[in-house]
Amino acid sequence: MPTFSFELYPPRSARSEAALYACLPDLVAAGPEFISVTYGANGSSREPSLDVLGHILQGTDVQAMAHLTCVGSSYAEASELIRQFLDAGVTSFLALRGDPPEGATEADSFLGDLGSAGELVQLIHRVQAEREQFAFHEVPGFPAARRIVSGSKVTIAVAAFPNGHPRSRSVSQDLDTLLAKEAAGANLAITQLFFHADDYLGFVEKARAAGVTMRILPGIMPVLSVNRLKRVLELTGEETPVELLSALESAPDAQAASLVGLDSAIGLSRELLAGGADGIHLYTFNSSDAPLAVLAGAGLLETSTPAL
Ligand code: FAD
């Protein structure tokens, strides 16, 4: 059965916090493989991200995945950040380089000590290994005995860009970067949003041919309004999906536009699953209605057996 997972962002006000915690139980009840929590650009959301992760870790049995960015950090700062998340009980990360601060140019050397997400992947593994070199396991039948085993490992996901990262010079640069991230110790990739199944399926084919073996989960965003579509295109640099834009623009009201966006995300999910994707990762915008409708439409929600 293909898996599914969700992305949340840390709330920015008391009202959005209440909305997030109101939708969380429904997302958890659906049975996701994991729930990831974004990290504000340039470290602006360390505490709020930790709060949401703590909520998931303590109140649910779903795996909580922390996004972390390293842009602009020294090694010492990045190591301290990783330790803080490990201390909070996080064992699953999405390691990202992050974007430059607004207005920064390449000449400003905005990157800090870690130049790429691959270096952050290595640092997370190193910090975890230093923190927990060994673990002592009980030996069944010998109450006083302890077996020494190597310390537990962490799961590290990374970002992938089916239509190329906006700063990348070529598809092969994106594939090389992804391969380097796997070589650095990443074991899962999650893609940037995209609007056509072939973008993802073609990318996965090229990635496999280039030697990438880790799972590559397609990131899907239900886009329920023209404004939201314009905003995500601005943020991601993706090309305008002309058909979706025109269908959203022609919708007579907001509710009809939502249905257009949902239909589009459901159709995309179905095509991806039919094409071999072994799961989907949904950008939720901290709401449960749209993501659960997409999962139901894609046949990924287990329905209870009807009473006879
Ligand atoms: P890398 O893997 O280091 O690089 C990505 C690509 O960019 C590669 O192809 C690389 O070759 C190319 N590239 C990088 N720098 C250059 C350069 N200077 N010149 C030419 N090519 C270059 N951002 C946040 O701040 N917080 C989040 O929580 C967050 N979550 C995300 C989740 C997902 C699933 C995705 C896809 C993105 C997310 N981002 C987030 C955005 C991400 O930080 C940016 O896309 C960032 O620009 C690149 O990060 P990376 O980890 O992909 O970098």
Give structural notes.
Helix content is 44%, strand content 19%. It has 308 residues and is an alpha/beta fold. It has an eight-stranded parallel β-barrel, surrounded by five helices.
What spatial order of strands do you see in the largest sheet? 1-2-3-4-7-8-9-10
Q: Give the SSE string.
A: EHEHEHEHEEEHEHEHHHEH
CATH architecture level-2 label: Alpha-Beta Barrel
Instruction: Estimate the helix proportion, in percent.
Output: 40-55%
Could you tell me how far the N terminus lies from the C terminus, measured between alpha carbons in angstroms? 25 Å
Mean pLDDT: 92
Task: Give the overall form.
Answer: globular
Q: What ligand molecules are bound, each kind once? A: flavin-adenine dinucleotide
Describe the biggest sheet?
8 strands, parallel, barrel
Number of domains: 1
CATH class: Alpha Beta
Radius of gyration over all CA atoms, rounded: 20 Å
Tell me the number of helical segments per DSSP (H or I, 4 or more residues long): 10
Secondary-structure map:
Layout: E1 3-8, H1 14-29, E2 34-37, H2 46-59, E3 63-69, H3 75-87, E4 92-96, H4 117-131, E5 134-139, E6 142-150, E7 155-160, H5 171-183, E8 188-193, H6 197-210, E9 215-220, H7 226-236, H8 242-250, H9 254-274, E10 279-283, H10 289-297
Parallel strand pairs: 1-2, 1-10, 2-3, 3-4, 4-7, 7-8, 8-9, 9-10
Antiparallel strand pairs: 5-6
Helix pairs in contact: 3-4, 4-5, 6-9, 8-9, 9-10
Considering the chains and any ligands shown, give keywords for the structure.
308 residues, alpha/beta, TIM Barrel, eight-stranded parallel β-barrel, globular, disordered C terminus, binds flavin-adenine dinucleotide
